Amino acid sequence: MNALNTKDNKSTIELLLLAAIWGASFMFMRIGSPEFGPILFTTLRAGIAAIFLLVCLILYKETKALKGHWRHVFVVGALNTAIPFSLFGYATLTLTAGTTSVLNATTPMFGAIVALIWLKDKLSLSATLGLLFGFLGVYLLVFENLQFSAFTRTQQVQTNALVPTLLPTLMPTLLPTLAAMLAALCYGISANYTKKYLSTIKPLALAAGSQISATVLLIPISLGFIPDTMPSSSAIWSVLLIGVICTGVAYILFFRLIAALGPAKAISVTYLIPAFGILWGALFLDESISLMMIIGGAVILFGVALTTGVLKRK
Questions:
Q1: Burial category of 178 from C-beta neighbours within 10 Å (exposed 0-12, middle 13-18, buried 19 and up)
Q2: What value does the CA radius of gyration of the chain take, rounded to a whole number of Å?
Q3: Is 198 domain-assigned?
Q4: Does residue 314 lie in a domain region?
């Protein structure tokens, strides 16, 4: 019994550690993306992680696991790394680390939608309600940042005059929010693609392969986004830490949790990431934590819990 309790406690600690690490990734993006640019920052992050995971792959003698699967691995590299990492990097140019980490929590919801459309998985009533709650939470999360003052300006009497006034007001927040949600959608597509085509590959090999392929895809594009000035030491440290710890080490921790707890319990880390994303943003970036952020984040997590079956409708 004591041995079982010790194992459970160790897994719980690792789960919290993983959530803290992945929550910190949004802080590092917030620091590094403005100086490197989202594309180059993502390329460096994927490249550093690829080197780290390739070394692990060699040490564990799993280099042959990807043979014959590279075409599918490249698709996963694009959908699970290259595109979403770049989109989140762009989003953090405007949105806080806390807000972006909460939007990332919609990933399981998009995964359920993709599974419904593509793999014909059925959605229960609870899951459907969860989707509605999740998107309501997203609306609440960004509501306070959307300035609707243009609607109430008495000077604007003509309807067509509202459009040029509203667009500059709404776009600075809407576009990054949509980018973050598109990134979450890419994660959802990637998860279902992996389930359909790559379920037999060991997780470490898939992680290394996806980072390698993402790096190969991004390098030619990133050459057009080299900054004119040398990034600061804090930006350089952020890309090193996000590559080694928040990508490389995090994947290894995640694989350990899958082995110890199973996939269903390991994925529960999704619910803890926003708390750490908000915490690190407040502690190290002086980001404010508003009541609406807490309410919106709570509604999103409630919706995700319903969608994934963690909570059952009575």
A1: middle
A2: 20
A3: yes
A4: no
**Pair 279, 21: CB distance under 8 Å:** no
Residue holding tokens 């009575």? 314
| Helix (H), strand (E) at residue 78 | none
Task: Report how far Cα 94 is from the mean position of its chain's Cα atoms.
Answer: 16
Model pTM? 0.86
Q: Which two tokens stand for residue 3?
A: 């041995």
pLDDT band, very low/low/confident/very high, at 239 (cuts 50, 70, 90): very high
Average pLDDT over residues 34-40: 97
Name the one residue in this structure whose structure tokens are 């806390």: 98
Picking from 179, 221, 229, 174, the residue whose alpha carbon sits closest to that of residue 42 is 221
DSSP alpha helix (H) spans, the chain: 2-36, 38-59, 70-77, 83-91, 97-104, 107-117, 125-143, 149-152, 162-197, 203-222, 233-243, 250-261, 263-266, 273-284, 291-308
Q: Which residues, at least 6 apart from 271, have a Cβ–Cβ distance to it below 8 Å? A: 105, 301, 304, 305, 310
Q: Is residue 206 part of a domain?
A: yes
Alpha-carbon distance 113 to 126, whole Å? 13
> What average pLDDT does range 234-245 have in this prediction?
97
In percent, how much of the chain has pLDDT > 70?
Answer: 85
Asked if residue 313 belongs to a domain, the reply is no
Number of domains in the chain: 1
Three-state DSSP class for residue 146: coil
Please spell the DSSP secondary structure of 157-181, one letter per residue. -SGGGHHHHHHHHHHHHHHHHHHHH
* Domain membership of residue 208 as a residue range: 2-308
